[in-house]
Amino acid sequence: MKPESSIVFLPVSDIEETVRFYRDTLKLPVHQKQSDRLYIFDTGYGYWGFCQYDDDRKPLSGPQGVCLSLNLPDNEAVINKYEELKNSSRVYKRPARHPQFPVYSFFLMDPDEYLVEFQKIAEL
After folding, report:
1. Residue 124 has pLDDT above 80, yes or no
2. For the domain with range 7-121, which CATH number is right: 3.40.50.2300, 3.10.180.10, 3.10.450.350, 3.90.1150.10?
C-alpha cells in the first residue's frame, strides 16, 4: 500500500510563536489544530507538525539540526520569495547556488532556529 502523504512532527518551545511564523509569515495553511499545543501545516506535498510537548523535549534546531525545505518552481521564484520574506524573518543565508549540490536556495531561521530553506533543485 502506497502512503497518501507524509508528516514530520517537531518539538517547539513556544507554539504561538511557531504558528505566527509558519501561518502568518510563511503563509502555510494550517491543515489541522489537534490542541492548543499541536498544529499541522500543509506544505503542498506533505505536512509539518509542531508540538509544544509537556515534557522537557528540546527543539532539534540550529545550523547542525533539522532543515525544512520547500521546493519552488525556478530560481526567480526563490529570489522573489527571498525579497518577500527578508525583512520579516531572520535570514540565515541569502540566495545562492550551493557549492556541493545542484540547488539554488536561501535559508531562514524559525523562532526555534529550525532552518527553513526555499530552493529550486536543478534539473540533472
Report:
1. no
2. 3.10.180.10
